Structures are given as structure tokens and as C-alpha cells.
Amino acid sequence: MRNECGRDARAPNVPKGWHSRGYIPHFDEPNLIQAITFRLYDSLPEHVIAQWKEELGITTKTPIDDKCKTMLQERISAYEDAGYGECYLQNRKIAKIVQDALLYFDGTRYKLLDWCIMPNHVHVLIATNSRESLSYIVHSWKSFTAKKANAVLGRTGSFWMPDYYDRFIRNEEHFAAVSAYIRENPVKCGLVKDVEEWEWSSGNTGALGARASRPQKNECENECGRDARAPSD
Fold it and tell me: Are 128 and 34 in contact (CB under 8 A)?
């Protein structure tokens, strides 16, 4: 049974505070600005992360704010920017599917502040509200886009890595740094020379047009809001 928003009424959609699915710790609280990254399933092998954790001495008991965890995230960011894996998001049809999903609930479930769809990962900066769980939002994006992208590619199986990375924005300086990082990521990776040249980013002036031409209700209303536990992500 679905409610008026097309959401599976049985799906959990409440902020969870600090929590983890066994991969990365998440902070899911209402009314925050959150920076989120999610990646294709083959963009960063699990054994690479495991090796780095061993090298840095990171265990399940390592505090969230430990400098070693910061170093780990820096290594992960550098690895993903190198463009490993199949890089399915280079396909314009698939990039548009992802961008449409991000834009669709802008202004209702969250306020979309910045985004960038890279060849093998996605960066998003949103302002959450008091009604929507961050984990629900992210897994709804992933479930919907995985199904659509696999259909385009004629494949089945995992499309995204099973978890995501999030970090809440501490202050205005932090916000400015994260916003700039997201917009400039394609330039930093050598994909384009100017921020506005990257089509799938809030740094592109065409993004304003994308906001005005969101997917139609019958394309996304039910499926973007479906139970994020669907196995297609």
C-alpha cells in the first residue's frame, strides 16, 4: 500500500541519528546540510578499502573523528577520481536518469544545493527537512536509478556500491569548500577545463534548465519513492 507521495507505506522513513550498515557510519538527523557521495559497484573494490584500513589501523572501535578516517576518505576520493571500473555514468542516458532523480524531489523531500555526476560516482549537497530520513532519500535515488540504468545497459545485478558516504556541513566555511569541491570535481580530474563545461553538474548553466524540465509524474512519482530496500541498487 502506497501513500499519497507514492512511497511504500511500510518503508522506514525516520531519522536514525548515528548508525551504520556495517560499512560506513552515517549521521541521519533532520534539518541539516549534508554532503553525500555514492559510487558505482565496481569503482572501488572492497579489498582495497580493507587494505587501507589495515594500513591505517582503523577498526570498528576507531572514533568517527579520528584523523586516520579522514586519511582513508582522502584515499577513497583520489581513487574514485581516477575513474576505475566501467564508468557507466559516462553514458548520457544514464547520467540524465541520475540527474532527473536528484532533481525530482528538490523542494519537497530536500533542497538540492549542488550536485555533480562523475563517470563512476555522484556528489550531492542537500538541505534536509524534518520529515525525511537521509538514508531513505539516498536509497530511493539508488534503487530507482539502478533499475533504469540496468535497463538501458541490458544488464542485471548490482549497479551501485551497497553504502554511501555522508558528512554534515559544520559552518559557512565548510559549506563553501564542499560546494566548490563538487562543482570543480570534473576540472580537477581533467575531464573539462571549465566548471560550466560539465553537463551533469550544478556548475553548468544548463542545470537551471534541467530544474525546469523535471521528469513527469508518471515517470518518477511512484518509483523514485519506492521502498529503498529494493534489491536493484
Answer: yes
Q: For 204-221, how does the pLDDT look when each residue is reduced to its tens digit (9 = 90+)? A: 977 656 665 555 554 555
The span from the CA of 233 to the CA of 230, in Å, is 7
pTM of this prediction?
A: 0.74
Question: How far separated are the first and last CA of the chain, in Å rounded?
Answer: 22
Q: What CATH number belongs to 21-43+83-178?
A: 3.30.70.1290
Distances from the Cα of 163 to the Cα of 44, 85, 158, 211, 232, angstroms: 12, 17, 12, 27, 13
> Domain coordinates of the chain in residue numbers?
21-43+83-178
Q: Quote the CA–CA distance of 169 and 113 in Å, as a whole number.
A: 12
For residue range 56-79, what is the model confidence (pLDDT) as tens digits?
Answer: 888 877 776 778 877 877 787 777
Q: Contact, 112 vs 101, CB < 8 A?
A: no
Average pLDDT, the chain: 80
What's the sign of the alpha-carbon dihedral 59, 63, 64, 68? negative
